Amino acid sequence: MQLYNYFRSSASYRVRIALALKGLAYDYMPVQLLKSEHLGESYAAVSASRLVPLLKDGDAVLTQSLAIIEYLDETYPAPPLLPGDALARARIRALALDIACEIHPLNNLRVLRYLVHDLKVSDDDKNRWYRHWVETGLETVERQLASHSGTGRFCHGDAPTLADITLVPQMFNAQRMDCRLDHVPQVMRVFAECMKLDAFAKTQPSACPDAT
Amino acid sequence: MQLYNYFRSSASYRVRIALALKGLAYDYMPVQLLKSEHLGESYAAVSASRLVPLLKDGDAVLTQSLAIIEYLDETYPAPPLLPGDALARARIRALALDIACEIHPLNNLRVLRYLVHDLKVSDDDKNRWYRHWVETGLETVERQLASHSGTGRFCHGDAPTLADITLVPQMFNAQRMDCRLDHVPQVMRVFAECMKLDAFAKTQPSACPDAT
What we know:
By secondary structure, chain A is of the alpha+beta class. Helices cover 51% and strands 8% of the residues of chain A. Chains A and B meet through β4, α3, α4, α5 and α6 of A and β4, α3, α4, α5 and α6 of B.
């Protein structure tokens, strides 16, 4: 397998964690987003969406981190990243989407660039925007973790799932941007549990071959 | 089943389509987003996330439209909304996420409000922002539809899937906001095919009991 990705892309980090949890080896193919390599001709030949991450598994070309992880879970079932019955799986997916749809898209590099370049938003306002969506979004996740009996050592139960895989990269962004985190104790507890595991720790941005 | 939703919320519309395709009956529970009913005490008692849509199926409480639809597909398998092998399912999910993660979150009501109230963006700039993410995002979807042999009468094959369910509500937003659409002929063709089906047509915003 080959994973086209970028060390600081949190969607990329999700897939690195999933591959590590499954024990799957892959070639690390760096795509330098800050240099806009994803928009260049050579990457366009690989990816119709021009986004990272992208996974090649033999002839198969897969995009969108959550779709890639669902594919990995269906193709390489152990350990399960979406364990349990339909209701448990729905809860895990909803927690992942609370991050992947409600927080992450608002703080993507291209969105921040549009704010600054097209809307002429100041750096201070841009950073306030970033923190606003992280802090309010994580508050929603906190409420779901605190109010549900399914929460265990991890977001759902006592083994890492798609929810934790989506949460941890978001926490790296939150810390890097100095977001307030004292209002989300359950989130912080789960984050600390995840980081005890090699699959999360050894794939983190600073440990990547393209880290600068 | 009870569906808490709002006629103009495109995430709500996704779930209405899925329920209709499955032939499942439900009580329509309107939540007036423009009046901020989703932030009030009575809805907080129902929903920890305070977002719509929310589906109650017996004792089960489900949030996040894509997670709800995956749950419906696992619990009420016919007709399948994620048909085929792992690779086909990954493509369908990726197309859905190209809309649900890359377009829709940027044009949510709360995001538009933040632009206007907190960042003091003009109405013209807000509308330009809206169109920018729709037009560039649909261009990505168009490239995926045009470049892949899996595209059929619908986004994937000849029956509607999760990808079409996510695409159609986005098209209603695109038309309502006068977005440019002449650059996405495959998208428009699939949209027209979907609207021939009752499951899409009879659940559209203007047909909802809370439509104004």
